[in-house]
């Protein structure tokens, strides 16, 4: 599961080597500690791939259609996750275009779910 460094918690397992400037900062299989997370922040690493700890919300529950007559909470959660995922790329014009396109898709999809 790709997570921003601010979302990382000690005990999560790194699923892919984390590299910066040609150096491996963390090897695949490393179990994160506070010191590892601090190092990632120091090196300005945006996000890494970690194993699910079982404390994340159930993906199936998040994508299920809302009950009839209930407001669509999943749409706002998706937008929130999208904003978080693209936050590190605020200055990248291409990434902002992609984010805008995805937001438009979510808005159109939410309109059809109701």
Describe this structure in words.
The chain is of the alpha+beta class. The chain folds into two domains: 2-49, Molybdopterin biosynthesis moea protein, domain 2; 60-113, no CATH class. It is 43% helix and 11% strand. It contains four helices and four strands; from the N terminus they run βββαβααα. The protein has helices at 34-42, 59-63, 73-86, 93-113, and strands spanning 2-4, 18-20, 23-26, 47-49. The strands form two sheets. A two-stranded antiparallel sheet has the order 1-4. The chain has a two-stranded antiparallel sheet with strand order 2-3. β2 and β3 (23-26) form a beta hairpin. α3 (73-86) runs antiparallel to α4. The chain starts with a strand and ends with a helix.
Give a concise summary:
The protein has 114 residues and is α+β, with helices and mostly antiparallel strands. The chain folds into two domains: 2-49, Alpha-Beta Complex (Molybdopterin biosynthesis moea protein, domain 2); 60-113, no CATH class.
Give a count of the beta strands, DSSP E runs of length 2 or more.
4
Indicate the percent of residues in helices: 40-55%
Record the strand order, biggest sheet: 1-4
**End-to-end C-alpha gap:** 29 Å
Question: C-alpha Rg, in Å?
Answer: 17 Å
Range of strand content: 5-15%
Q: In DSSP terms, counting alpha (H) and pi (I) runs of 4 or more, how many helices?
A: 4
Shape descriptor reads elongated
Number of domains: 2
Average predicted confidence as pLDDT: 78
Structural class: alpha+beta
**Biggest beta sheet attributes:** 2 strands, antiparallel
Order of helices and strands: EEEHEHHH
Low-confidence sequence ranges: 57-72
């Amino acid at each position: 599961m790709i997570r921003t460094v601010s979302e990382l918690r000690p005990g999560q397992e790194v699923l892919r080597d984390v590299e910066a400037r040609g150096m491996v900062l963390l090897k695949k299989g490393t179990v994160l500690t506070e010191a590892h997370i601090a190092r990632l922040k120091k090196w300005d690493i945006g996000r890494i791939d970690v194993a699910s700890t079982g404390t994340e919300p159930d993906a199936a529950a998040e994508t299920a259609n809302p009950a009839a007559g209930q407001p669509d909470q999943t749409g706002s959660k998706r937008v929130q996750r999208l904003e978080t995922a693209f936050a590190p790329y605020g200055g990248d014009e291409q990434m902002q275009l992609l984010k805008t396109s995805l937001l438009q898709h979510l808005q159109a999809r939410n309109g059809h779910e109701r």
